[in-house]
Structure formats: structure tokens, C-alpha cells
Amino acid sequence: MLKGKLRLKDEILFLVMALCVLLNGFQAGSNQAFLSEIQSDLNVSGANSGILPAIQWTAVIIAPIITGLFADKVGKKPFLLSFLGLFVIAAIILFFTNGLPIYLTGVFLVGLAISVFQFIALAIIIDCYPLSQDKRMSIATSMYSIGAILAPLVANLFIKNNVNWRYIYLLCGILAFLLALFAAFIPFTPKEEKKTPNAQQPLEKEKINFWGVGIICAIAGIYVGVESGFAYYIKPFISDDLGGMNAELAISLFWLGMLPSRVISAYFSKYKLPILIGSLVILAGLGFSFGFINDISLGLGLSFFLGFFCGPVYPDSVSYASSFAPGKSGLATGLITASTGLGAAAVTFLFPAIQAKANISTAFIFLGCLISLIIVLAVILAFMGKKKPVEITDNKPQDINS
Using CA of residue 27, residue 334, residue 351, residue 308, what is the dihedral sign? Predict the structure, then answer.
């Protein structure tokens, strides 16, 4: 482990892990931007459109729970490389898709792959940069936003030039292959030194606070469900209900809004609780009001502010994981990632169903109600977070390559 200021070569590992998160954001943004085109190409009705993202999010539920536990014991690097490889295979399947069954198989494999390589990347950041993990977590999750911002812009370029949506998956597959190549030659050793308890004090056995981890899982799951509901259905709302052109811009504005708020969250991490609660309160109000707007410009503007106040929620809540699960970052982030899959699968499936049964306003009010529930959970988490378990380390560098 290193003391003092980190050298440039010590930042390479963080950069590659952050780019893994960016790739996840890019493929997610691509799915959102091309949803209408994929729907039309595969003959899926609007009321049933929720099944397309829900299948991918269902896969996100499965893999992290199992692999998180094994990643802590076996080593995180093999898992990262294996699931980047699976993503490449899934991208090839999607590129050659000629029907709905093959497409659903491909997106299911994509869900398995991204769920693992993203949570492993975040767990590696927690393990290798323990002193600066709060700031790095915000920066890494900002990379997801950057990927999701770029995807609709690339999608719009593809659509204007009559490039088939399948080529976006080919591009994602190439990026995943390059990341795997870089990651294979990087040592996954800790770059910062943790604080250790006084040598005279008896060491306490590391324990997971499952209540704390459970509440983080609930917050992350409901939040990512809400985030996915906004991200997937802002575009059709702007284009179909408001009659706006270039509705892909709304998705980019949504993800663009997250960038400044996550930077603010990173550099004011000691105030993460008031930032988290304040963001959720404002976000609930925006969610309740969004479905009632009837002006395209207002819709685009609110898309940005929805993203802005969504920004701090995920990194600020997940940063509590190291307090509740010391030494078990893989298992904790795996459980959190699985819960995000459950939340996103449920909301992306229910949103169009609610819209079909009632209207778009009711569907957005549903998202606002979910945000209100997160506020209650965040307050409970804050009280639990005041009593932190003792952090134990043997003060020796641990290689997590194998």
C-alpha cells in the first residue's frame, strides 16, 4: 500500500474501472435511445415494450448475488475479465439478431455481464482506494452518466444516417474487448493505506450488518427503478405525448444533469446526508409534476433537473456499504447491484402498463411515490450509519489479481 500522494501509474487502475462503468452507461443509454426502433423492428407493441428492458434487468438480479461472494474469496480480476468476455459474446449475438427470441437472449446475457463487471469495478475501487473511495465512487458513477449522455447522441447520428441499431452493440463489444485487454495487464493491488486500530486494542471480528446492507439495497433498488422509469420513458413522452422532435435530446439532458451534481457530491462528501435527503425531496416534487407538463421546452428543461437531483442518490447511499460490510465489498456491492436489477425490472415493466391502464401522469406520480419511500429509508440509513463497525486491516498489501 502506498502512503502520501498517489503516482500517475496508481491511477491507471481507477481509470480502467471507471471506463467499465462508462461502458455500462453507454449500453444502457443506447437501449433507451433505440427503444422505439427496436420495438418496431421486433414487432413489440407499446403496452408490452416494458418487457425489453425488464429482461435485461432481470438478469442483473441473478449474477451479482452468487458472484459477489465468490469474488471476495477467489479474486475480483478473473470475474471482471470473464464477464467483459461474456459481454463481447452477447454483443455479437445482438449484432446478428433476426428475431425477438434471439434479441431477448442477447440482452439477458448483456444484463448478466454488466451487472457483474460494474459491481466488481466498484468493489475494486473500494478495496484499492479506501481513503478516497467516497470521491472516487462519485466520479466513477459520473462516468455512467457520461456514457448515457453520449449514447443518445450516437444513436441520433445513427438514425439520421440510416445506420441500423445493431451496430451500436458491435461498437459496445469492441469497447469491452479493449477494456478486458487493458485490465488483463494491470496489477489489482491496493493503492492507499487504510487506518488501523491501535495495536494495544483487541481486534474485533469483521461482521456484516445485514440490516444496514438491506436498507442500502432497498434504496438503490427503488432509486434505479425510478431512474430507469425516467430514462426509458422520457423520450416517448416528449415525442408522442408532446409531439417534440429530436426527443433523444431529453435522455442526454437527463444524464447530463447528473454530472455536476455528482461532482458536487464527490467534493462535499462530508455533507452527503443532507445532500442525499435534499435531492430526494426535490426529486419527488419533480416526479409528481413531470406528467402534467404540456410544453416541450419545459419538458426538456425538467429532464435536466430530474437528472441533476438523481445524481447524488446512488453514490451517496452506496458509499455507506463499507461501513456496514467491512472486508466484504464484493458481496455487499453484489447484493446492491442485484437489488437495482430487481427495482429496474419491476418499474420498467410496470410504467408502460400503468400508462396503458390510466395515463402518463399517473405513471409519473407512481415514480414520485417511490421517491417518497426512498426518503424514509434514507433517514433510517442515516441513523444506522452513526454507529459504524470497527474497520480491521492487517496493514499488508493484498493482491486481488488471482
Answer: negative
